[in-house]
Write a structure and sequence with these properties.
heterodimer, A: alpha+beta, 16 helices, 30% helix, disordered N terminus, B: 322 residues, mainly alpha, MetI-like fold, 13 helices, globular
Chain lengths: 532, 322
């Protein structure tokens, strides 16, 4: 699986290299032009303030309305945004940010270091991952209006990643600092005052969100677009038809199925790409309740891993448009390592392992049976995967009962009260594994909360690795620790990892500079323009 | 008439109370927890936050207290606060009511008028081409799922032959001027109305056809013909009044179904109305919003039924004479 990844990279690079050698100049990018309205969609949101809510529905418009201190590029490198420069002390415990001169909020008030300090406190206290990201930030000092100094109690290796507008949006203290609960602040939806490239012009949550160009944006000449219109469309089929017809120009997290991709590409106008999801990195997995037999037995889990052919799923169910994936980290992550045990597809081996584990074939050619929950969300992926698993395990004498959750609430209840045997599931890595990966493995995080360590995995050796990785500031050492974590996670089969999700951005050939960083559509769109 | 009307209104109030208690209980029995759904949408949350939200929403109270608090609020004209949108439910409903009423009433009127006209026309020549066509169309409209019809109409009249927009109630980038806006909304209205009306159109055409056939056989029609009245006058003055009564009865009864049909149609066409809101509220376990919408629809259905009662008397004066 690892090799296919490298091969694919080579295949992409090779023609480019050849072109370069021949001295052919690539078609030069057209000069970006200002103006125009970009039509896009949203599935609906309950707040526009990403300081208090994670997820793409809030994050996409939120990153347009609010600016962050830095931007992360396609190589995970931080570049200046609201912070024009910064210094990091040798012990990695002090980060000093210098803000851009003259930056203003949408209501004309200056953006100061006070606002940065306030934003950090807000995110730390209210964002679902606030503590995971910033609990080691002890204080933010504000020696003057344009300098914010972050003092850390312990190093945070991924700190700059968390300074993207998505994760640390700079919100106005003079609006939100009135003592009201930030999670329910009326200004999260009405009369929103932001700091980013676009301002809210119209917000009718049932119908549409209109953002217009912030003429006073702190980057000269940006944004290019005059207007962004998010039509609220919940039905993914309707969205596909709108793209096909050309009613919308750009959609991130489009929710289309791999089978729709070809249909959209056939129009000749649309590009479908899975690039730009490395930072949030969505991972599918089969979650087994490790508390009870038979799944408490590693041999049984190994048998399952041998029976389920993930490359088949990637090829057939996802149309070969996704990486098979190998473990807890997305292949787009800097910390991804493919050096993990592999369980080749082999039904005989699976059967032998089950015999060894004490589950011989009994009456009706059956070894044991279990119920596999299928969540109501991401049905297009979970449904077919569940059916495939059912048929594969049937071949080795395991009877799988599929239980389709009628809706999100029912499924969440089952999983978070540990009242299940197995479920299809999946979660986001988020830019730093500390946020999105540790939560599933940490002994302390076995809680009645969805997407915590609901399966009940606990190993002190794993905890030690996680603790080390959380504060390791040397990139190579940290990579090595994560490689070990990935190896151990797959060895212990904490989850049985499925192919990576087909999360796709769709855009028309009218769109110039589609957001290309690791945050993809969740990054600001100030460089996006419309061609003639 | 006034007496019977006041009796009806009295019944309606009792009925509404029953609707409230029943719905509240049903939603309470359904598995799932709005706080967990919210936490899920946030991308996870701490147990402390979950507890805080439970207390906030009053979900930590025993069932009977929650029920009585809710009933008390409704009696004071307060439909409560949406868990999800964190807004008064009344405001949410008022925001979206217009869109739904526009869709539902247009669809119902369209179905009623066109359905009856088709039925009456096809009743006059029983085995004509028109008559057979109406029968086939109504069978198709009757048996096809409404969302399928919606998607097919989009594919046909919006993608293949781009006459109408796919979704929404108005072009996202609104045209200037009131007239342009009305025209724009009218354009967006066509496909959802056709979709929603298709089922009822089929039904009304069948019903009015059958009823017309029956009436045309009756003695007074023969008498009317015998005394030499024109065919037009016989059909549209004498027969239609009687033939249309069952259609009106059904239109009243079916109003509730049209509203539920709107849920699917609104979802397919991204129509910003109550149907979409109801659907979402179920998924999110946003019980105050859902209860509010159900209460509102119940009131609407009752009003329509009272209106139908009055309509009977207008169409057939013999009813009030009794």
């Amino acid at each position: 699986m690892f090799h296919t990844k490298i091969m694919r990279r080579l295949l992409i690079v090779a023609p480019l290299a050849i072109t370069a050698m021949l001295g052919a100049t690539p078609i030069s990018a057209a000069e970006p032009k200002a103006g125009g309205t970009l039509n896009t969609t949203s599935s609906g949101y309950r707040t526009l303030n990403p300081a208090v809510q994670s997820g793409a529905a809030t994050g996409i418009p939120g990153s347009q309305i609010f600016a962050g201190l830095v931007l992360i590029d396609e190589n995970y490198k931080a570049s200046p945004y609201l912070a024009e420069s910064w210094t990091i002390s040798d012990d990695n415990l002090t980060y000093s940010f210098k803000l851009v001169e003259g930056a203003k909020f949408h209501d004309g008030q200056p953006i100061t270091s006070e606002d940065v300090a306030f934003s950090l406190e807000t995110v730390k206290a209210n964002h679902p991952f606030g503590k995971a990201m910033f609990s080691n930030v002890a204080t933010v000092e504000t020696p003057d209006a344009s300098t914010a100094v972050f003092r850390l109690s312990a190093p945070i290796p991924g700190l700059l990643l968390s300074m993207e507008p998505l994760l640390l949006p700079i919100i106005p203290k003079h609006v939100y600092g009135d003592g009201q609960d930030l999670k329910k602040h009326p200004r999260n939806m009405e009369n929103v005052v932001g700091s980013g490239p676009f301002k809210v012009a119209e917000n009718t949550p049932a119908e549409k969100l209109v953002l217009v160009k912030n003429e006073d944006f702190f980057i000269e000449g940006r944004p290019y677009l005059d207007k962004l219109v998010f039509s609220i469309v919940k039905d993914s089929l309707t969205r596909v038809l709108m793209m096909e017809k050309g009613e919308i120009d750009y959609v991130g997290f489009s929710g289309i199925r791999a089978t729709d991709a070809g249909r959209l590409e056939k129009t000749g106008r649309l590009t479908v790409t899975t690039e730009g999801y490395g930072a949030v990195g969505y991972i599918h997995y089969l979650e087994l309740n490790l508390r009870d037999k038979p799944f408490s037995d590693l041999k049984v889990r190994e048998a399952l891993a041998h029976a389920i052919d993930t490359s088949f799923i990637a090829k057939i169910l996802f149309g070969g448009r996704v990486d098979a994936g190998t473990g807890p980290l997305h292949t787009g992550s800097v910390f991804y390592s493919g050096d993990v045990p592999s369980f080749e597809a082999d039904l005989d081996k699976a059967a032998a392992l089950l015999d060894e584990a004490g589950y011989p074939v009994g009456a009706n050619d059956e070894r044991f049976s279990f119920t596999l929950d299928i969540p109501s969300w991401a049905k297009q992926a979970h449904g077919p995967m569940g059916e495939y698993i059912q048929s594969q395990l049937g071949k080795i004498g395991i009877k799988v009962e599929l239980r389709q959750a009628p809706d999100f609430g029912t499924w969440v209840k089952r999983i978070s009260s540990f009242d299940y045997q197995a479920t299809m599931n999946g979660s986001f890595n988020y830019p730093d594994p500390v946020i999105g990966v540790h939560r599933h493995f940490d002994c302390d995080n076995i809680r009645n909360v969805i997407w915590s360590n609901t399966q009940g995995y606990c190993d002190p050796a794993m905890d030690a690795l996680l603790d080390a990785a959380a504060i390791e500031t040397d990139l190579d050492k940290r990579k090595a620790t994560y490689a070990e974590i990935q190896r151990k996670a797959v060895e212990d089969l904490i989850f049985i990892y499925m192919p990576q999700d087909f999360t796709a951005t769709v855009y028309s050939d009218k769109v110039g500079n589609p957001p290309s960083s690791v945050f993809g559509p969740l990054a600001p769109w100030h460089e996006v323009y419309l061609k003639d | 008439m006034v007496k019977s009307l006041s009796k009806r209104i009295g019944n309606a109030v009792i009925l509404l109370l029953a609707v409230l208690v029943l719905n509240f209980t049903l939603i309470h029995i359904a598995p799932g927890d709005p706080v967990e759904v919210l936490a899920g949408e946030m991308g996870g949350a701490t147990p402390e936050l979950l507890a805080e939200l439970h207390a906030d929403f009053g979900l930590d109270q025993p069932f009977h207290i929650q029920l009585f608090t809710y009933l008390g609020n409704v009696l004071h004209g307060n439909l409560g606060h949406s868990f999800y949108y964190d807004k008064p439910v009344t405001e949410l409903i008022l925001d979206r009511m217009g869109a739904t009423l526009l869709l539902v009433i247009t669809a119902l009127l369209f179905a009623l008028l066109v359905g009856t006209a088709l039925g009456v026309a096809s009743a006059q020549k029983r085995n004509s081409l028109l008559s057979n066509l109406v029968t086939i169309l109504s069978l198709a409209g009757f048996s096809a799922p409404v969302f399928w019809i919606g998607i097919m109409l989009i594919l046909l009249l919006s993608v293949a032959v781009p006459i109408f927009p796919i979704a929404g109630m108005a072009t996202a980038d609104e045209p200037e001027g009131t007239f342009a806006y009305i025209f724009d909304v009218a354009q967006h209205l066509v496909l959802p109305v056709l979709t929603l009306a298709s089922i009822y159109l089929a039904f009304y055409s069948r019903l009015s056809r059958a009823s017309m056939l029956e009436v045309l056989e009756s003695d007074y029609i023969r008498t009317a013909r015998a005394k030499g009245l024109s065919r037009f006058l016989v059909v549209y003055k004498h027969a239609l009044r009687n033939a249309v009564l069952p259609v009106v009865t059904f239109a009243g009864l079916q109003f509730a179904q049209v509203i539920s049909g709107a849920v699917l149609v609104e979802t397919v066409f991204a129509w910003p109305g109550l149907g979409t809101l109801a659907f979402e509220s179920i998924l999110r376990r946003d019980s105050p919003t859902l209860l509010g919408i159900l209460f509102f629809s119940a009131v609407l259905v009752l009003i329509v039924n009272i209106v139908v009662d009055i309509a009977y008397r207008v169409i057939d004066p013999r009813i009030s004479a009794k």
